[in-house]
Amino acid sequence: MKRYVFALILAFLVSLAATWIMDNPGQVVMAWRGWQLETSFATLALFIFAVILLVITLQAGMQWARRELPFIGTNRHLKRQRRGLEAMNRAIVALAAGDHITASRLINKTKLLLPPQPMVHVLAAQVARQSGDEKKQREELKALLTDPKARFIGLKALARSALRQKKYPQALTFITEALSLEPRSVWALSAGFEANVGLHNWQEAERMMTRARWAGRYFDENQAGGNWDHQKAAFNFC
Predict the structure, then answer these.
(1) What angle do CA 160, 163, 168 make, to 5 degrees?
(2) Residues β-bridged to residue 32
(3) Which sign, positive or negative, has the C-alpha torsion 98, 99, 100, 102?
(4) For 4-8, 80-84, 147-151, 159-163, which range has the lowest pLDDT when averaged over its residues?
(5) What is the DSSP string of the chain?
(6) Is the pTM of this model over 0.70?
(7) pLDDT at 46 over 80
(8) What does the pLDDT read at residue 175?
(9) 202 CB neighbour count, 10 Å cutoff
(10) Across all residues in the chain, what is the average pLDDT?
(11) How many CB atoms lie within 10 A of CB 223?
């Protein structure tokens, strides 16, 4: 409502000014480098008003284009992100279907369209694992370590990969750092127990169980060898 009132007042003032100028046209003479221009003040005022109106119109048009057109300004970036997210979703579907070739192509497309995303590296690592490319898988997982928010995910995945290959010293390095980030993590305590048992570090394995008990967490019986009393007795025997 206020805008309409302001527009009416402005139109009224402009009409008054135009009427006054028409009643008092005056004369304007401009000379520059031998050129001389003579016109009425009303004509000059109308020209200046037209220029101002043109500038305002062009500015409004540019703002509209940045806001509405998909290939200009902010919308260009939004459209790019939308295409990247769509490619990532299609990669997830392809990965679930076991089509690692299509998934790899879509992940590469996602990397081009989106800024660095932890989820993209996780998916790329899964694709590499499906295709049997262990080197590529490690590269993608290590890329997660550069992001503080995704570092734990990268450490967990690298540790799991090392445990599967029975590379217990390497796995224990990742697990130790993961525990420094999440000291009460069920997975980290359980994986630390498994790695230490694999290295025959019985005291360290027992310490992992003790930490789990203090944290109020318990291992799965199939994974950690039964309840706390049985585990304790086994280590005392060792």
Answers:
(1) 130
(2) 35
(3) negative
(4) 4-8
(5) -HHHHHHHHHHHHHHHHHHHHHHS---EEEEETTEEEEE-HHHHHHHHHHHHHHHHHHHHHHHHHHHH-TTSHHHHHHHHHHHHHHHHHHHHHHHHTT-HHHHHHHHHHHHHHS---HHHHHHHHHHHHHHT-HHHHHHHHHHHTTSTTTHHHHHHHHHHHHHHTT-HHHHHHHHHHHHHH-TT-HHHHHHHHHHHHHTT-HHHHHHHHHHHHHTT----HHHHTSSHHHHHHHHHH-
(6) no
(7) no
(8) 92
(9) 15
(10) 78
(11) 10
Q: Which amino acid is at 136?
A: K
**Rounded distance, CA 57 to CA 29, Å?**
29
Q: Six-digit token pair at 187?
A: 């997975």
